[in-house]
Amino acid sequence: MVDKTSINFIIVTLLNFVITIAEILGGIFSGSLALLSDALHNLGDTGAIVLSFVAHLISKKDKNKHKTFGYERAETLAAFTNGIILIVICVFLFIEACMRFAKPEPIKGNLMLIVALIGLAANLISMIMMHRDSKHNLNVKSTFIHMLSDALSSIVVVVGALIIRAFNCDWLDPVLTILVSVFILYEAIQVTLKAANVLMESNPSINLEKVKQLMLDLPEIENVHHVHLWKYSDSMTMLDAHINVPTSLKVSDLEKIYTQVQEKLEPLGINHITLQAECKRGIKEKMIVVGKTD
Q1: 223-273 pLDDT per residue, tens
Q2: Cβ–Cβ under 8 Å, residues 229 and 203
Q3: CB neighbours of 136 closer than 8 A, spacing ≥ 6?
């Protein structure tokens, strides 16, 4: 059964595809590079929405012997791919805008305005459709942010079309293109870096010293070492660590310690913890040994 989020993805994808075609044709016939830049932005976002939708479907698949963690990282891969595509598009548009300064072309402001208004209306509808689910689904939220940037880009193009129509200042078109490109480039870099950090299993800005102190607050834990802390997906932050405990502890005591550690670290956003109990091995080791690969 197709869920409501999937239906919203399909509708928003179709809307963005229609906007893209309309703005490409409008940009060609009006001579507006700003309109073409917004069209390419929408084309990138259409691909982003499709990837997000496919990732949304794949992430729902159950774990199996081949994917023991499941398929949640499909969404991260989609985000990384979308970010790279957006960066390439922005660089291309920036170069085109700079070339347009050297060889300005006349702009048909009326056609540019009509197409830009259609794009703005469709982007606002897409935003509204994705807003509700964006509150509790990060994948949907990333799509909502794309729609928000699309709406802002459309507003810029509408304002530019009005000014060009009123004052016939064609130089404003490449200026607007550069402004939109810089804005989208910043957003694309942020998304790409975030996705790359997840794929590289980076620490999601959690203070390791605080993690260690919370664990050492338990009297049975004498030392914490061999620590790995990483974000597997948007919904799962994982910790793997070795702890030193007295030799007198029983297995049943360890189970209680594991539960207590889980309760202490959950407020930090760590929701998947694997601990290995040891007695003397590694008792003098630090959490992280710089330069050492485990």
Answers
A1: 999 999 998 877 789 999 999 999 988 888 999 999 999 999 999 999 899
A2: yes
A3: none
Instruction: Band the pLDDT of 43: cuts 50, 70, 90.
Output: confident
Q: For residues 165 and 24, is the Cβ–Cβ distance under 8 A?
A: no
Q: Are residues 130 and 189 in the same domain?
A: yes
Residue 292 inside a domain? The answer is: no
Residue 260's domain comprises 208-278
* Residue 28 sits in the same domain as residue 140: yes
Residues 150, 265 within the same domain: no
Residue from 37, 182, 22 nearest 117 by CA: 22
Question: What's the number of domains the chain is made of?
Answer: 2
Q: Do residues 53 and 107 both lie within one domain?
A: yes
Bridge partners (DSSP) listed for residue 239: 229, 273
pTM above 0.90, yes or no: no
Rounded to 10°, the helix 172-199/33-58 angle is 20
Q: Is residue 98 part of a domain?
A: yes
